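Thread title: Can someone regenerate the structure for this chain?

I was given the following input by a collaborator and told the matching structure tokens would be attached. They weren't. Posting the sequence so someone can regenerate them.
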Amino acid sequence: MGAFLSKWPEASGTHVPDSTGEGRGSVTMQCPGCSGHLVTLELSGVEVDYCYTCQGIWLDNGEMELLVGLGGGDDRLLGALSPVSAREKTVKCPACRRPMEKVAAGKGDVVILDRCVDHGIWSEAGELRKILELSCDETHESPLVRIIGDIFAARKGRCV
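Best answer:
Regenerated them for you:
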């Protein structure tokens, strides 16, 4: 697992920090989901901003494509992000604080994400894993998908 994860404490079985992320990575921005703090962590060499409180992940422009590529997935899914009208609450970009647009990824079984065209994508708990699963070949599970699943399972204290 060390090749994929460098700062995800849950994957190594260590204690999960409190909601402030105290002592893990550096606090960067305010979480668009719960107003907690986003902590910068590294996943497969890609820095992501993670909220320990709501388990959401902020990805700067280009980072989602990098993670999908590292996971062996097809990034055409991300190229087809299309604006949708969703009843979910609007959240603000943690970088510029402007309201983000709702976009759909996938066909049929879609995942609704929040996107700031200028800065990046917000994925709520479990959505990043779902994106990676949708983008991968159905005949195998990417190691990166398994690792992300392990992270959320450890945080929730149950299997995914």
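Strands lie at 26-30, 37-43, 46-51, 57-60, 82-83, 101-105, 111-116, 120-123.
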